[in-house]
Amino acid sequence: FPDRDSVVARAGTRTSPPRPGSRRARCPFASHGETPSRASSAKDRRPPRGRTGSLSGKRRRARLLGRKRTKQSRTMTIRFLLLVNKQGQTRLANYNENVPQEERRQIEGEIVRKCLARSDKQCNIVEHRNYKVIYRRYASLFFIVGVDEHENELAIHEFIHCVVETLDRHFGNVCELDIMFHLESVHYVLDEMMMNGQIFETNRRAVLSQVKEFDAPPASSS
Amino acid sequence: RRVPAGTPARVHLRTGATPVAMTRLRELIRSVRQCKTSAEERALIAKESAAIRASLREDEHFMRHRNVAKLMYMHMLGYPTHFGQMECVKLIATAGFPEKRVGYLGLMILLDERQEVTMLVTNSIKNDLAHKNHFIVGLALCALGNICTAEMARDVAPEVAQLLNNRNSYVRKKAALCAIRVVNKVPELADSFLDGAEALLADRHHGVLLAAVTLILRLCDGENETDSETAYGGGGRGRGFGKAGFKKGGGGASSDGDASNDDASSAALTRFRRRVPDLVKILRALLHGAYSAEHDVGGQHDPFLQVKLLRLLRVLGAGDAEASDLMSDCLANVASNVNAGKNAGAAVLYEAVRCVVGVESVGGLRVLAVNVLGRFLADKDNNVRYVALNALAKVVGATGADAQAVQRHRRTIVECVKDGDVTIRRSALNLVYSLVNASNVQTLVPELLDYLEVADLEFKADVAKRVANLCSKFAPSDRYRVDAFVTTLVKGGAFVARDECRSFLALLTNRVELQPYATRALFRAAHEARDDAHFPLIGVACWALGEYGDVAVDVAGTKLFEEPPTALTARDVVDTLRSVLADARAPQDVRRVAMVALAKLAPRFSSDENIKKDCVDAVSAFRASLDLEMQQRSAEFDRVFRVGGDVAAATLERVPPMALRDEVGASASSAADLRMAGAAGGVSDANTADLLGDLLGDVGGGATAANAASGADLLGDLLGDVGGGGGAPLFPSGGAPPPSADPLADLMGGSPLTPGPGAAADPLADLMGGVGAAGGGAPVDPMAGLSLGPGAADLLGSPAAPAPAPAVSSAPVTSVVVPALDKHGVSVAFSCAKPNDSDATATTITASYANANAFFLRRFTLRAAVPKSATLALEPASGGDVSPNGGVVTQVLNVVNPLVDSKPLAMRLQVTWSEEGGEERAETATVTFPSGV
Fold first, then answer.
1. Is A25 within 8 Å of chain B by CB?
2. For residue B725, which of B742, B747, B707, B750 has the smallest C-alpha distance?
3. Which of A35, A182, B777, B908 has the lowest CB atom count within 10 Å?
4. pLDDT tens per residue, range B770-780
5. For testing contact with chain A, the best of B2, B297, B351, B422 (most A CBs within 10 A)
6. For A75, which of B16, B214, B423 is closest by C-beta distance?
7. Tens digits of pLDDT across chain A (222 residues)
8. Do B36 and A96 count as a contact with CB atoms less than 8 A apart?
9. Where are any strands of DSSP class E within B374-418?
């Protein structure tokens, strides 16, 4: 993944050399095979998570309300941002519109299946339902952004990279585990970059200066 | 340093959480990851949820932070977390920054449609907006921007408007985005942000500029979110909570907001159009500014801001020549100078192109834009090609002049059809379809046909269909259509839909001069491609050989210019059809077509006894077929052959010209009129029924002859009825066919006076011709010929009285079938027709007497009486005796009814006959004819 390599190469020049045997020594976005949990591979074979059972009255009502939302403001750019790994497990979900849980799971499942089925040579834009999905793959992790159809796909494509670079600089060589264990940090970063589906800051330093103000570099996960 | 005062433990600020909480969250994550089954995971989460609930009940405030973090994780996994929302509210109300931060984050993530929670936080947010620490203000703005409801929007709008002027850029940019949400929720508040937004354009901070441009885009955008209430609308439950804070009650976006919103957006448009020079200046500065490491992305100076600016320019310039003119230089500059080599540059270029196309640009600039897209098509990056194809499709759809420019890139676009990426192929195909016109059809259709051969399976049917559509729209000649369709059949294999085959055959019936040529072309193609995948081709070829095989053989007389040489003999034709008929791999419907084709050819190749005999033998061989439908068809034809003579010739006539698909719509109304004849019920649907299916249907009718005995017309199909009627005499053991609702039989019974199907002068032949032309499909079936011939009527005439015809009183009476009598296996039906259009009073009634009994009816006579005002003249009947098992005798009654307009004809009739070896019988009936007779 040339994009990713270049980021790492650039990031690597700025970070201190990794301690031997430390988590940082792993390749970025290490896949599950290298996670501390040996059982993870068994878990990964599980079908995508799903809950059964009937909906309570309240939840059913919630879904109905959700269905009513059809018209979207044209200024809504990013409908959602998902981080999903190769096994189809959601690592982060950031929705900018109110989507009921059941529908979220459904959307995520459909989109992830579509994205996973595509080869590297195919373009990174998929049309799904009434919006466009732009995804980028970094090692084992897919960054998936759903936008409305009028959006400039190439700019969003670039924005994904901008997010990854920012995360990379925040965590220093970001990997999937960083995102898993520091979910709220990732959310803080995203909140500094976009709000209500609008991008408002793409300057890495400006973003991180706000986040870093209160977050020390994350402690080692071990 | 800038940490707000009052945080409970400073040490926690460094980790963002208490150490205990952090480990516990990690433990949860780790345990979840160690679960081997979903059930295990569910159990774990249920336990954890219970623990969190307990903790919330205990109100352990030092655990709140950890609980919310855990809830966020569980929420992401898809488990219910609504019980944590109140915890977020409590966290937000605390003084410490980390608690507030996690509280706000939790609120944004966990919030669902429950309105009361957002009501509860309104006050906290208002307090935080006024906080002296700008980080806390930023948190509040961020939360507001993400979850704000209409009520909250009204509450906080003044504060947000004020914060647009905050001296801190961090607050300004967030306030600008928050304003977007406020305007989305309450469009009438847009005015209060106009000044602030305009002032922000002078900002130097890129983030603020980006947010400001986005806000202006929203303000200029007339569309509003009308469903602001349903987004979080939880009904009236929570209404009591923040009512004091409402300014306009809880109504949400009011309906009058729409109108005022349109006004507001047009006011904003006028206002910001004056700022176009400033926007252009900002854009120029970005284009030519000095390199800045902070904002450089792929060689572009803040491409995100450039893209947003261009988008705003597009909105401002649309429909405004002056504004468009102001920005045109800058757009040309972008379009010619930005390097599309990197994704960031391509994004800017793409947006510039969309801007050029969207505003009132001059022609040269538009051509430049299209050329940029043309260059995109050759780009190595798939994403760039994809957006270019989509953009070009929009340009082609929009205007004619730009379409010219797009045509120049046709070759590149066609290349994209063969791209390795299926998404691009699909986009490119759509674009190619929209590019085709009369001038380039001959270059593009072969490309599409080439593609058809290698296309993905999921595309083939679509491509085949589109090629057929394009050819019918733009083909230079009918011969071109024939060639293109034969190629489609060859390359599309099994993916060519029956619809296309049918409309092609309909075309063929209408183009006499092309019939031999097309038949030979199909014959060649079918011979070259004999494998499983080409059964649509073989089916069509068999059909054409059956209809036009005899004329196709005459190569010299019918050869078209530059036609490839084919030495086609009658022997070839018959052998081909016989091999298809005998081919066990071929689908049944194709084999049935082959059988009908052979049957139809038999009388036409009668000059050569051997060939004729082969045809007859091949058809008759299936009398013992296990396939019931084949068997019946075979038996019927066998009978036709044995009767021979005029009967066979007329029965196996060539089909009349069918209505072409594009003409069907126009004649739909006349088809509806014809429906009243009952028979037309099947016919007028024929454009939706399909050719091969009809064949099936009519044979199926024979198969269900036993069912027809119940009087139910199972197929409801014209041809099915023919089969039912025809099948009966051949199966005497099945019992005499009882009365069946068979209007067609009456058409047949009513037609003995017609000199034959070829005589178009006859009104009934006209009728049939008209039905065929309007309906299209039914006469495709060779069996339809049966209904035309007088001999066929004798042979196949139904003994049964027809069901009452659904008369359409408003329509002119061309032919109405009226059942008159049905007793003792004897049925009498009247078929009425107007002998000349000018005279509405005169009616020719053809009475048909059908005998369903197993014995002869001797001395069958009919006496009829009409009102005094009318006159009646009976012509001699076609026979004195009615033969058994479906025998039919017809008689013509000429009626003149001067009161036709006011009073339809009524008739009293008596029929008498003597049954063979039995008694004399007499039956009387009163018949009321439909209006118009």
1. no
2. B742
3. B908
4. 333 333 333 33
5. B297
6. B214
7. 444 433 333 433 333 443 444 443 333 443 443 333 333 444 444 444 433 333 333 433 333 233 333 344 455 689 999 999 888 888 899 888 878 888 888 888 898 888 888 888 888 998 887 889 999 999 889 999 999 888 899 999 999 999 999 999 998 888 888 888 888 889 999 999 998 888 989 888 888 887 776 654 444 333
8. no
9. none
Burial of A178 (0-12, 13-18, 19+ CB in 10 A): buried
The ipTM is 0.72
Residue type for position B269: L
Q: How far apart are CA B104 and CA B139, in angstroms?
A: 7
How many beta-carbon pairs below 8 A join chains A and B? 227
Task: Nearest chain A residue to B33 by CA: give it.
Answer: A40
Q: Which of B105, B180, B307 sits opposite A152 (nearest CB)?
A: B307
Q: How far is A17 from chain B (nearest CA, A)?
A: 23
Chosen for mutation from A7, A23, A137, A154 (greatest number of chain B CBs closer than 10 Å) is A154
Is some CB atom of chain B closer than 8 A to the CB atom of A13?
no
Say if A55 is an interface residue toward chain B (CB within 8 Å): no
Closest to B740 in 3D by CA, of B853, B855, B856, B852: B852
Tokens of B84: 């944590």
SS3 content of chain A, % helix, strand, coil (to 5): 45, 15, 40
Count how many Cα atoms sit within 13 Å of the Cα of residue A126 in the half-sphere of its side chain: 19
Quick check: B224 and A221 CB within 8 A?
no
Q: Which helix (H) or strand (E) holds B693?
A: helix B691-703
Q: Collect all residues of chain A within an 8 Å Cβ-Cβ radius of residue B422.
A: 122
Looking at beta carbons, which pairs linking B162-170 to residues 24 or more positions away fall under 8 Å? Answer: B163/B129, B163/B137, B164/B193, B164/B196, B164/B197, B164/B199, B164/B200, B165/B196, B165/B199, B166/B134, B166/B137, B168/B134, B169/B203, B169/B205, B169/B207, B169/B208, B170/A210, B170/B134, B170/B135, B170/B138
Smallest CA–CA distance, residue A57 to chain B, in Å, is 13
Check pLDDT > 50 for residue B850. Answer: yes
Distance, CA of B307 to CA of B449 (rounded, Å): 40
| CA gap B710, B723 in Å, rounded | 15
Q: Look up residue B804 and give its two tokens.
A: 């009452």
